[in-house]
Amino acid sequence: ESELMVRITSDDPDERMPPVDDHPEGLSKNEIELIRKWIQSGAPWEKHWAYEKPKTHPAPKVSNSNWAKSKIDPFVLHRLDQKGFKPSPEADKAQWLRRVSFDLTGLPPTQEELENFKADSSEEAHTKVVERLLNSKSFGERWAAMWLDLARYADSQGYEKDNHRSIWAYRDWLIQSFNEDMPYDAFTIKQLAGDLLENATISDQVATAFHRNTQTNTEGGTDDEEFRLSAVIDRVNTTWTVWQASTFGCVQCHSHPYDPFDHKEYYNFLAYFNNTSDADLNDDFPRLKVPSDPAQHERARELDNEIKDLRKTLNHSGNLATDPKGWKKVKVKKVEGPNTAKFLINDNEVEIEGTVPQGSTYKVELTGQGRITALKINLLPKERDSKKLPEHGAVLSQLTAEYFNKEGKKEQIKFTEVFAESLTGPFDPYESLKKGAQGGGSFPKLFKPTWLVFVLEKPLVRDAEDPFFLYVSCRVRGAETKGAIINRFSIEQSCETTWEKLLTSPKRIEVKDKWNQLRSERNKIRSITVPVMRERPEKAKRPTHVFVRGNFLEKAQAVQPRVPSLMGDLGTEASAPRLKMAKWIANPENPLTSRVFVNRIWAELFGLGIVETIEDFGTKGEAPSHPKLLDDLASRFQTEHQWKLKSLLKELVLSATYRQTHKVSREHLEKDPRNRLFTRGPRTRLTAEMIRDQALKASGLLSKKMLGPSVMPPQPDGVWTVVYSGARWRVPKGEDRYRRGLYTYMRRTSPYPSFLTFDAPSREVCVARRIPTNTPLQALVTLNDPVYIECAQALAKKMMEKGGESLLDQIAYGYTLATQKTAPPKVITKLSQLYEIAKVNYQEDKEESDALAKSPGEAALVLVANTLLNLDAALTK
Predict the structure, then answer these.
(1) Of the chain's two ends, which shows fewer C-beta atoms within 10 Å, N or C?
(2) Residue 196 pLDDT more than 60?
(3) What is the reported pTM?
(4) Residue 870, by phi and psi: left (phi above 0), alpha (psi -120 to 50) or beta?
């Protein structure tokens, strides 16, 4: 009687499920009967496997317990036993060393390392190699390169103009974190909410640049709020992709069609990120000044915290600004301004209609009498419906006043202090006291009423008939075409003498002096700036609404920060909800975090994850090939490995599963073509960065320099064209020309072409998995790109100097440098034939020869070296 049975047994093509167009045959009788029996038995239902907390499993019984070298091996062998397979033999030393060197450091072993390992016959030989590689500084560079795809790291802002962004300090933080073996739970928390940690260090704050890698649209005419929200949405989707391997982004527009996530829950989670200070501003505000000298980090942190606290103190006026008893309305008599605007006056409130050009000033005439010590300017939204907010920003650039006394003499009224409801945005309210400065208010958007209080230098006592004028200037322009114009405001006045006492108190004067002194000291610390996450104060908290069908212009009910009900309940009351969310992701009770991470690491080593869809653990993703292995590994990663990557990697690369040869038998190739059962060792193509790095390493050109700004290595002429600025691709002459691939400058609209050709993403969005391709363009890159030509020239020189006297010895030496293998005789023969043909050709074409080397013979050897760097054995691990 259920709708399910009605649909699957219906003869009506409009009713029948599955749909006739996609499944004309429908379900079989056996399948229908199976569903019927399931319903009759009570229709028991379980959570999807990925949403159950992982647990350890005892090792299964296997056919050959002596084969196992690690706790993972019995799980792999058990599946092989079930399929009637035997594991492949162990790889020879050269093959394993090349594999593990690339996997742990992203670089091939040196000739000396290869010879030492071959000569070491001890039982600990493999372990000693792994420990050496794990302690190498190159380790952090290799694993940071992986994480940069997830972090969508780039040296530019994205979108049309794609201007430069200085954020390389985050990349350096990654390298150092991996080298220090920071536990993954701490690594997670720092990137999502390091700024909210107690006593957050400079390093903790730099870590939050993970979510400042979102794009900023600096094109004129764009709406800052639209692209701010695009960044917030990207943070939500990226967080769920990276740490939860879930297609949570689907829920932006509707409830998830396959996984148990409700449409409203998307916006509950979005609320965790909706209160950060960034707002799609051209200068990437907020930015942290990171001292160039790490020894000054602690002092800089102390200064930043003190300066921030002192500024809050200076902005605090007790209840003077908020107590309604201390204020009374000031009636507005008349307002003058641009003739394109119309001013509507209602008692003490002014609303402006029409067009107000950016840079305009309103002349406001006030009536009334009495003593004035302070004026309060309330900046009000024109829109009364909160669901239609925010509006364009409202910034009071400068407030001046003049008063005409009984004799008609004009007096300039000076304001000595300004207080704001909250300290937000890129402008300090003090700016509104200066001529030509930015000002104070709400920028770039106005989400709710806010206020500024201006305290007079000395009290003013006036009669009702004495003219009193305020000049309200609006000079700030946002990224959009419209300026941050005040469209509605009201004015109040205070006669409290407490304002005078507050400003003249010795304590306040001392605080202000110290604030200025500390700012001066901080400015003397040589620093770079990096965009970071920073939370807005509670008073300026942005409201979060559900977007109807995902459209930010159509808001439904307001929501509070929450995680999806499937994953638990954090509640909504928290002083730092984003930090609480980050700790929830890194909590051992979270069923996905450790599973997703160990699966990603497995995929990095074996080419395929235990769950192949490493970005999707939901019901539409692939099921795990070894469910108990994944659970056991995820559980032990938290307990035995204490969330440490190096410990996890050591277990994996020393396992018998990993040590298998990549040579494939006919049976394995036929029955396990993609190595889903791990019947053999991994043989995968190197990543784009590794291909370039190994060519540099083999040729002896690779720079050991670490960290610092991104560099611009050689690339084909004419590739990098910047429309909106005079920026140029400037190739360095020193060792920066030959630095590792992860230091290469990444401009989103013009990525490094050889990396792009080898499947590296352009980093607009988070990419959890690079899908390898084979195209003719790849061969054209490694044969012709300037970098590979230079590497071939250096490799040929190395072959001549160290390879021996004969051509055959030199070719054999070069082959080993490029592949760590001994060259088969037929390969040496083929390459020597290539050399002879090329030498003749270069003798006939002196111009072509001179472009490569000093003589035709040397040019021919360069061609051979170039060929060696293009061999499959050189492009795979």
Answers:
(1) N
(2) yes
(3) 0.94
(4) alpha
